[in-house]
Amino acid sequence: MLAVFETGVRYQLTHALGLLAVAWAASRWPNAWTGSAGWLFVVGIVVFSGSLYLLAVTGVRWLGAITPIGGFCLVAGWIVLAVGALRGAQ
Fold first, then answer.
1. Which ranges constitute the DSSP H helices of 29-66?
2. What value, to the nearest 5°, has the Cα angle with vertex 64 and ends 52 and 56?
3. If you count Cβ atoms within 10 Å of the first and of the last residue's Cβ in the chain, which end, N or C, has fewer?
4. CA atoms of 9 and 60, how far apart (whole Å)
5. Whole-prediction pTM value?
6. CA 71 to chain centre
7. Does the structure show a pLDDT above 90 at 75?
8. Closest Cα partner for 42 from 5, 6, 12, 83?
9. Helices 50-58 and 67-89, interaxial angle, to 10°?
10. Burial label, 4 (beta-carbon count in 10 A; 0-12, 13-18, 19+)
11. Domain limits at 75?
12. Using CA atoms, how far apart are residues 88 and 84, in angstroms rounded to an integer?
């Protein structure tokens, strides 16, 4: 369970840095894409890392079933951030 907890921490830290990138991108290219990327990161961190934390602490196995939803939000956040940067740079 320690490895599960460490995975949650690693992804939370990585995407917290991603949120800083979103803040920078939003100040440089203010558009709906960059704002949406930020919200996708927040939801992804809460669902992905939060479900892993709860799984590690409580041992409730069904929480592992919702973890991929958070992972999808994190991946979607990076894609939306890239689109926002590309559209803003034009």
1. 32-44, 50-58
2. 40
3. C
4. 18
5. 0.91
6. 7
7. yes
8. 12
9. 160
10. middle
11. 2-89
12. 6
CA distance 28 to 26: 5
Q: How many domains, the chain?
A: 1
C-alpha dist (Å) from residue 60 to 16, 54, 63: 26, 8, 6
Summarize pLDDT for 9-56 with one digit per residue, the tens: 999 999 999 999 999 999 998 899 999 999 999 999 999 999 999 999
What does each C-alpha distance from 43 to 27, 59, 65 come to in angstroms? 21, 22, 16
Q: How far apart are CA 73 and CA 37, in angstroms?
A: 9
pLDDT at 90 over 90: no
Q: Is residue 90 within 8 Å of residue 31, measured between CB atoms?
A: no
